[in-house]
Structure formats: C-alpha cells, structure tokens
C-alpha cells in the first residue's frame, strides 16, 4: 500500500472521519519506515509490499498469549506475501525477556536456515517487540524486522524508535541495540482482547508523553476519558496517533538518545528500580506511573510546576487505574537500585524532570537526598520539611 502519510486527527470527530492513520518516520532526514494504524489486518499485505519479501522467509515471533490469539490469522495473511512463514513462540512475561529466549530464537532461525534478507515479525507487546528487535539486530549482524504491536503500550511507545534489548540478571534493558523496524503495523481492534490492567499500563506511557511534550494532548486525555475507557474506536485512534506523534518527534530528533530522547525516560529512573525491586510482579507501565508521580513531585518541590499541576497529573494516572504509590519497599533500596542502573553518567544519576507541564528537561544535579525524599513520597511516607 503506497499510501502517503495522512493527517494526524486532532479531535475524536476528526479521528472518526479518518478511520485510519498512516505516518512516516524519518532518520537523518530520510524516510525510514511507515506506521499504520488500522482497524484490522486486511491492509497488511499491501503494507509489506514495498519491503520486497516475495522471495523471502518470515518468522513470526510471538508470546504464548499473542500466538494463541492472533498467530494463525497473521500466518495465513503473511503466507501470501512471501515464500515461507515460520513461527517462534515463547512463554509470555517480562521474566522471559532474556538472552536465553534470544538464544532459543537464534537456534530456531539457524535450523530454519534464515538468511540475511529474511525477516522477523514481532507479534505482541513490548516484551516480544524488544526481544525480536534485538534478535534481528544481532542475528547475522542484522536482519530486518516488522513490528505488529498488540498491547496499548507497544502501539504508543515500544514499537517505534528502534530501542531493542533484553533484561540481564534482572537489570532492565541492560543488553540491547538501536535497530529500526522496517514497518510498524497496528490493528487497533486487537486492544479489545487486552486485559484492563494491560490497557492501564499503556496509559502510563501515554500520560508520560503528554507530560513531557504536549499539554493539549494531556488535557484531552482527561476530557475524552469516558470514550477512551470504553475503547471507542475513534477515541483509540485519536489517542494512539497522538502518542505516536510525540514519540516520532522525539526519536526523529535524537534516534540514539544523545539528547532529548532521554525525555522518554521520564518516570523511568525510579520506575525501573521499582520494577526490579518488585521482582517484575508490577508491570512496566505501572512502575512508570509510580516513577512519574515521583518525578512530578520533585518538579513541584523545585517550584517548576504548581502543587495543583502535580496533583492533576497524579489524579489522571489514578483515573486510568494506575498506581502512584508502592507498598512494601524501602526508600533507601530504591535509591541504591537507581544508582546501579544504566542511567548513571560519570557517577551522577541522569534524571528527567518537568520544566512545565508539556516540557521536560534532563538534569544530572539530583543528589541522593532529593532522590531519597522522592522515594519516600512514593512509598507513602509522611515527609516533614
Ligand atoms: N523499546 C521501547 O522503546 C520500549 C518502550 C516502552 C516499554 N518497553 C518495554 O516493553 C515491555 C512492556 O511491554 P507491554 O506492556 O506490552 O508488556 P507485554 O509485552 O509483557 O504484554 C503484556 C501482556 O499482554 C499480553 N497481550 C499482548 N497483546 C495482547 C492482546 N491483544 N490481547 C490479550 N493479551 C495480550 C501479553 O501476552 C502479556 O501477557 C517492557 O519490557 C518494557 O521495558 C520498551
Ligand atoms: O524509546 C525510548 O527512548 C524510551 O525510553 C521509551 C521507554 O518508555 C522505554 O521503557 C525504554 O525501553 C526505556 O529505555 P531504557 O534505555 O531506559 O531502558
Ligand atoms: Zn517505558
């Protein structure tokens, strides 16, 4: 489908009229890949046409849940576009986003004689996408891959921008590579099978996008709450397109995180520590929400945003059933874990705060005491000034 990019709907009415959206993502000013937002998988054959895969093999990588729900349908569709479709399935869950699973996938690809021009297809959430992208970045020194994100989080965030990787010894995303997908194709109606908890996780990254880059979008997330929670198609299209727009802008400016891409890490410094300390029993999006509450609190304490704005940010997260506090952790452990993370830069924590609602900035001047107080805040401790 050589469809040119379409307008990104600014309102629900515009989204209802548009019905679908196509965006392109550039790298170094040149076209890199398309993002399709569609109501089904029908246009996928047209979307893959420009990738010249007729003489090639594809391997669908899915987790146990997405394989069961959409594997057969996708295989059937892709069979018509290439010579052979293989399938690699691993058990769902963050605990499997590891080098062991990547190793099993390499073995599968070698057995199936995948060569440098064959491609992988990630069918699933951020776990599948990050892992498949990393395998694609490293197998035979790099092969192509397609993202078919099936969670809200992966549609609005992880499928775009080419950050790929796996966890290592429970350290989040410790091993990885930047490797751009050749295509991102999302069927928004797969969100109908997504459990509510996972839908909320996507809202964590969506609210993050509003906070760091687009206050108007953030405000509408509040206004359109009913339609979004009902998973009204136009509301989903408006919301997913709006988030993809924020993410695209940031990754086009700074594909390898030398500067503003770090904004996307808002809420992730404390968030990743909570994720690790809770042994991955909380989902990524939930930990990001807790981390956003901590970073918004710090921004308020530095008098960058008002108390009312800090409260409104927390309320929006709560409205979408996300946690803003964590139980059962010691604030000191959060600080210690943060300092073991890869966000350290010459001994300083790289932290993202809000200059105002809708604009972030990166700072390296967060001292342990401030980090500890923010950790105590999200642990629900009373803080006496
Ligand atoms: N690369 C990036 O830029 C980036 C950005 C954000 C998050 N991430 C990573 O993404 C991961 C989190 O991704 P996630 O929240 O999508 O989690 P996930 O991939 O674990 O998916 C959550 C659960 O939903 C199930 N699922 C997926 N699609 C479904 C559907 N349509 N219907 C029913 N069930 C479905 C999955 O099987 C899984 O059990 C984390 O590892 C995080 O670090 C990466
Ligand atoms: O795309 C990015 O850049 C992001 O930081 C998006 C984040 O939501 C995502 O969780 C990412 O995987 C975090 O990256 P990390 O490098 O901090 O592990
Ligand atoms: Zn994230």
Automatic annotation (TrEMBL):
Compartment list: Cytoplasm
Domain 3-dehydroquinate synthase C-terminal: 202-344
Membrane-spanning segments: none
UniProt entry keywords in alphabetical sequence: Amino-acid biosynthesis, Aromatic amino acid biosynthesis, Cobalt, Cytoplasm, Lyase, Metal-binding, NAD, Nucleotide-binding, Zinc
Any matching Pfam family: DHQ_synthase
A GO term, aspect molecular function: 3-dehydroquinate synthase activity
Binding site for NAD(+): 126-130, 150-151, 163, 172
SUPFAM superfamilies, sorted: Dehydroquinate synthase-like
Annotated binding of Zn(2+), by residue: 205, 268, 284
Catalytic reactions on record: 7-phospho-2-dehydro-3-deoxy-D-arabino-heptonate = 3-dehydroquinate + phosphate
Keyword Nucleotide-binding among UniProt keywords: yes
Cofactor: NAD(+); Co(2+); Zn(2+)
Entry's cofactor comment: Binds 1 divalent metal cation per subunit. Can use either Co(2+) or Zn(2+).
Start and end residues of each 3-dehydroquinate synthase N-terminal domain: 88-200
InterPro entries membership: Dehydroquinate_synthase, DHQ_synth_AroB, DHQ_synth_fam, DHQS/DOIS_N, DHQS_C
Pathway(s) this gene product operates in, as recorded in its UniProt entry: Metabolic intermediate biosynthesis; chorismate biosynthesis; chorismate from D-erythrose 4-phosphate and phosphoenolpyruvate: step 2/7
HAMAP family: DHQ_synthase (MF_00110)
Function recorded in the entry: Catalyzes the conversion of 3-deoxy-D-arabino-heptulosonate 7-phosphate (DAHP) to dehydroquinate (DHQ).
PANTHER family named in the record: 3-DEHYDROQUINATE SYNTHASE (PTHR43622:SF1)
Assigned protein family: Belongs to the sugar phosphate cyclases superfamily. Dehydroquinate synthase family.
Protein name according to UniProt: 3-dehydroquinate synthase
Organism annotation: Hominiventricola aquisgranensis
């Amino acid at each position: 489908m050589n469809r040119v990019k379409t307008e990104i709907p600014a309102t629900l009415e515009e989204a209802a009229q548009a019905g679908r959206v196509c965006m392109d993502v550039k790298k170094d000013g040149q076209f890199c890949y398309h993002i399709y937002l569609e109501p089904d998988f029908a246009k996928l054959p047209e979307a893959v046409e420009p990738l010249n895969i007729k003489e090639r093999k594809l391997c669908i990588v899915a987790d146990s849940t997405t394989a069961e729900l959409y594997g057969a349908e996708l295989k059937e569709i892709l069979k018509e576009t290439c010579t052979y479709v293989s399938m690699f399935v691993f058990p769902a869950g963050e605990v499997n986003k590891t080098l062991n699973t990547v190793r099993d996938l390499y073995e599968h690809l070698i057995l199936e004689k995948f060569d440098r021009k064959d491609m992988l297809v990630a069918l699933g959430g951020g776990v599948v996408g990050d892992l498949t992208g990393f395998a694609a970045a490293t197998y035979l020194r790099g092969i192509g891959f397609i993202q078919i994100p099936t969670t809200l989080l992966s549609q609005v965030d992880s499928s775009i921008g080419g950050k790929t990787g796996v966890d290592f010894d429970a350290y989040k995303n410790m091993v990885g590579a930047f490797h751009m997908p050749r295509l991102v194709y999302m069927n928004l109606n797969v969100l109908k099978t997504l459990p509510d908890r996972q839908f909320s996780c996507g809202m964590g990254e969506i609210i993050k996008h509003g906070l760091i880059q687009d206050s108007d979008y953030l405000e509408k997330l509040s206004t359109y709450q009913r339609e979004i929670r009902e998973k009204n198609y136009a509301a989903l299209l408006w919301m997913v397109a709006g988030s993809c727009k924020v993410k695209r802008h940031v990754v086009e400016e700074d594909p390898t995180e030398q500067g503003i891409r770090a904004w996307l890490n808002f809420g992730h410094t404390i968030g990743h520590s909570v994720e690790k300390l809770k042994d991955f029993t909380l989902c990524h999006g939930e930990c990001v929400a807790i981390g956003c509450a901590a970073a918004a609190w710090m921004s308020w304490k530095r008098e960058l945003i008002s108390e009312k704005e800090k409260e409104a940010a927390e309320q929006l997260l709560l409205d979408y059933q996300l946690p803003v506090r964590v139980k059962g952790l010691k604030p000191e452990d959060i600080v210690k874990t943060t300092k073991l993370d890869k966000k350290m830069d010459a001994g300083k924590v790289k932290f993202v705060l809000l200059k105002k609602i809708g604009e972030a900035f990166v700072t390296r001047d967060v001292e342990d005491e401030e980090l500890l107080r923010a950790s105590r805040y999200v642990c629900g401790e009373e803080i006496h000034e």
